[in-house]
Amino acid sequence: MAEQGNGESGAAVTGGEGGSESSAVDNPGLPPHRPRLADVDEKAAKRNERQVSVLFLISIIGTILSFIGYFVVGQTEGNLGDLRLQNTLLGVGTALAMLGIGLGVVHWAKTLMPDHEIVEDRKPLRTEEDRAEAEQIVTEVIDETQIKRRPLLRNTLIAAALIAPLPAVVMFRDLDRSDDFGPERMRHTLWDEGVRLVRDPTGTPIRASDLTIGSAMHVIPENLPEISSHGERIAEKAKAVVLLMRMNPDDFEHTSPGRENWTHEGIIAASKVCTHVGCPVALYERHTHHLLCPCHQSTFDAAREFKVIFGPAGRPLPQLPITVDAEGFLVARSDFTEPVGPTYWERGEA
Amino acid sequence: MKALTQKRRHPFAFVALLLLGLLLTGGLYAAATTVNEAQASNLPEGYSTEQVEEGERLFTANCATCHGMGADGTENGPSLVGAGAASVEFQVGTGRMPMQMHGPQAQEKPPQFNDEQTSQLAAYVASLGSGPAVPAEEYLDTDQGDASRGGELFRINCAMCHNAAAAGGALTEGKFAPSLDGVEPVHIYTAMSTGPQNMPVYNDANIPPEDKRDIIAFLKNDHFQSSPGGFSLGSLGPVSEGLLIWTLGLALLIGSMVWLTSRSS
């Protein structure tokens, strides 16, 4: 270990010492040590000491502030100004408490603690004797267990170790809920022939006359509120949410064969689940008939069967075929004719 | 002719002329009032004939260039027949109309007309054909609204464009849904009932007046408006928060690393 002092201790290592002739670049050695202000001037050292202790004091004040924030402020319920002050005191107080200690310690180490440059040599490698000793210990342990002399012990241990993880395998296998939530379930929603379109969240049915041109309505199937389990209801709602819009029927630019009766007097319904990664698409511009997805800006054109006109979505939004029932309420003609939402492996074509 | 000239000086000629004059003016007046009454039958509820007339004058001077004489629309502006008083209250009351220049959408600016002129224009547009009316005071009273129910309706119907914190958001091709901070209740209401520009229409069959009041009560609620968590950074979500941490946060980290490794003087 070689040490370079600042004149008080040790001899300075001279640059280039021991540099062999074979190396292309000579070892430049350590740069010359430069004493700090605090090393030579006792006044400067005193000043640094004060600075560090002020930082520690700031930390103490920070801790007190966060205690005040926790125990004194924000005790009156419903007073939002108080709550805001409490949050501020807690945050600022804790930040000062931590930062004060951290900054103080670093400042202390940088200005007052010794800053001698040190070269530390690599430790020597272990010898062959050490290795032989370790080998001998292992051999002794094996002999003491008598595992070679008593094969019954060895074999039963191996058998036990082999089957011990099996319960975990079985339990993890049962986490597979693909029967309940698998691809088949993705394929169908609550919509079916004659299921009424109702308002979200009130569940009231909708007459065609309730929508004027330019209207947009957020719609769920009428059989959704009947599901009692909250988890099931949310899972079904996530697939079945629909946006209902009324346009001027003259504005429809394209209707595929077979879809002529999917709309009712300009009222058109589409799945709200984006075909890209499943964000809710409901940003409807009533004059351009564009539907915008807020996540990745996929844009669908309601006038052209929700064709993708911009963004990363790969397929149009599935359209829900609708009509009116005998009582004049809007109903679905059938389920969606294709799976809603993003593509998945088992989805198949179209 | 000769007989007439002779009778001109007849003592009763003055009386006859007076009678004739009275009959004529009276008849004309009667005819004129009938026309007026015919117009009055088209008068929108809550407005006077004077307001409609004054509104028409203002309209012809300020709006007809784009919306056409008689407000039946031109290439530069839509027809306002059936737009209703609520549309005028929103578009003129928030300064969006008259438009300063063409752009992706009309933007809010200091209103050009005072309240009186706005209601005169509203009266005129309402007289052209029935449309959404300016809401009654009771539907703008946030004390009567249920803010918690309004919050649910807001998240379902409005939050996708206007942002869950009502801070607004971008739409396509330069259009945007504006922030709802500081918007007058009557303008929130009329925006819902008329669907200005590209906003969909939320008529009374979709969101009844009581529900609109709940939504306004939610937006005006102290809990919703304040930000007890500290700086909201515009409530724009990951964009503003990410920008702050990537610029200020990283700069602080790099700065402290430089300080840690530098030698003290």
Give a description of the structure.
The complex is a heterodimer of chains A (350) and B (265). With 350 residues, chain A is α+β, with helices and mostly antiparallel strands. In chain A, 36% of the residues lie in helices and 13% in strands. Chain A has helices at residues 37-40, 42-71, 80-111, 128-145, 151-163, 166-173, 178-181, 183-187, 230-240; strands at residues 2-3, 118-119, 197-199, 216-221, 242-246, 267-271, 283-285, 290-292, 299-301, 307-310, 319-320, 322-324, 330-332. In chain A, the strands form four sheets. Chain A has a five-stranded antiparallel beta sheet with strand order 3-4-5-6-11. Chain A has a four-stranded antiparallel beta sheet with strand order 7-8-9-10, with no helix packed on it. In chain A, a hairpin with a 4-residue loop joins strand 7 and strand 8. The radius of gyration of chain A is 38 Å and the shape is extended. Among the domains of chain B are: 45-134, Cytochrome c-like domain (Cytochrome Bc1 Complex, Chain D, domain 2, Orthogonal Bundle); 135-225, Cytochrome c-like domain (Cytochrome Bc1 Complex, Chain D, domain 2, Orthogonal Bundle), CATH 1.10.760.10. The longest helix of chain B is centred in the N-terminal third of the chain and has 28 residues, at 13-40. Chain B is elongated. With 265 residues, chain B is mainly alpha-helical. In chain B, strand 1 and strand 2 form a beta hairpin. Classes of the chains: A alpha+beta (350), B mainly alpha (265). Chains A and B meet through helix 3, strand 4 and strand 7 of A and helix 7 of B.
